[in-house]
Amino acid sequence: MALRAPPRLLLLLLRAPGGPCRGLASEGPQEPLPVIRVPRPLELRRGAGARGGPAPRAAVVRPGPLLIAARRPEFSQPARLTLGRWERAPLASRGWKHRRSRGDHFSIERTHRRVPALPGAEAEGAAEHEEEAGAGFVELGLQPRVLEALQQAAPAVARPTWVQLRAVPPLLRGRHLLCAAETGSGKTLSYVLPLLQRLLGRPRLAASCPSPRALVLVPSRELAEQVRAVAGPLARALELHVREMGGGRGMGSVRRQLSLHPPADVLVATPGALWKALKGRLLSLEQLCFLVLDEADTLLDQSFLELVEYILGKSPIAEHRAELEDSFNPRTQLVLVGATFPEGVGELLSKVTDLGSLTTITSPRLHCIMPHVRQKFLRLKGSEKVTELVETLKRRRVDQPGSPGAVLVFCNSASTVNWLGYILEDHKIQHLRLQGQMPAAMRAGIFQSFQKGTRDVLLCTDIASRGLDSTRVELVINYDFPPTLQDYIHRAGRVGRVGSEVLGSVLSFVTHRWDVELVQKIELAARRRRSLPGIKTSLTEPLPPMELTG
Which of 40, 261, 305, 405 has the fewest CB atoms inside 10 Å of its own CB, making it the most exposed? Predict the structure, then answer.
């Protein structure tokens, strides 16, 4: 059978000297096809190294949303990518200790559109989360009177948060509780509701001096005012009374606060003021049945530890579970809440109670970078921070002329707060100031007026970073970078809280070499989607029980 002649076009391609099939139709030796053994970016870097010049970087296309958005795109990371624990991370802040890095920046982008503290926000579609999302306060075991008081005092609170779902039932059963959850997750209401319900079932006994039945210990006057503002309306609806006792005003003020009638069922106090009242025998804790340490990591710091140990020693805390369940001689129920686990909490609690009777609740997002808040880090010289701050505040007024949203500006010292205040006054930027060296009369009500919207900018120290409700804050500016990762968690937690209208963002100015070290830890944790390193996440092995003196 005769073969057909190939088409004319195919013959031309085969005979073309530079064609794709060169050598197939010729009788000469065939040239081998090239084999790629080294990736092109690596070959470029090797060649540049041999010539002594900088290595050119290959542009990599990264479609889709980003988890890390860097000024230099080669350091950006897609949201769909998570680095392994032992995988080397290309940090955008790796060279920030060098002075040539000034002006560089990167941001941890928002990957969630809802506050993770709300049930079902983390994993939509999972059966357990769907069940949680439909749960209400009725399922927690609260009495109808308490539910009605909650509806009257806080009609916007429609359903419990993740923390409230897990904290309220054991507290109603009379358990000791240690609750560690991220800021803005509704921890205050999680202990206020069980506290009030348990007081309803216990009559007040006659006493020779004021003796509250519930005590909430907080580290600052501002937080004491806030807790009273939350618990007060609920208590009034239940015919209970909440009093606040802050320090800084002398013994005369303490006596006046304790002499108010009717006496307090719930006392919200700072450690210094309560210590003075106990030392002066103006107050007794013999009827105490509920003790809360709010912001426990701050209260158990060295600045408060001695006072808190004295107060715990004066409180009739139940040592075993049987004493908690004894209806004839009830002892004090202990509750610790905070956004970080305090160091040595097991050692302290072992002195006053059995750790086996302690129920621990830990949020899965504890010590993690908040996925619903955008966080930007800007490398600057120290002399450039004032200009950047003023431009940022003025730009917000231009971009949002009606209501630009509230801004918290954090500084590491009271002197910096005062100095920045004078500069903002020169630029006609209205603001408030809050720092610990202010007299008590001057500090009173500053944060409340900020919450009410009298000013949209608050210059403050870390006194405003612990526990204060800041649902109207849209931007946190770290003018001075916080000294520890715990402080960064608390400052960043002022935005994106339960009840906030917007998720908000954080802007941090990075100037010092020690600031860069913390930024690198934050960036690495974000890239690997892990908790921040060096923050305690569990109780230590307790020491043998010891008797408190004093």
Answer: 261
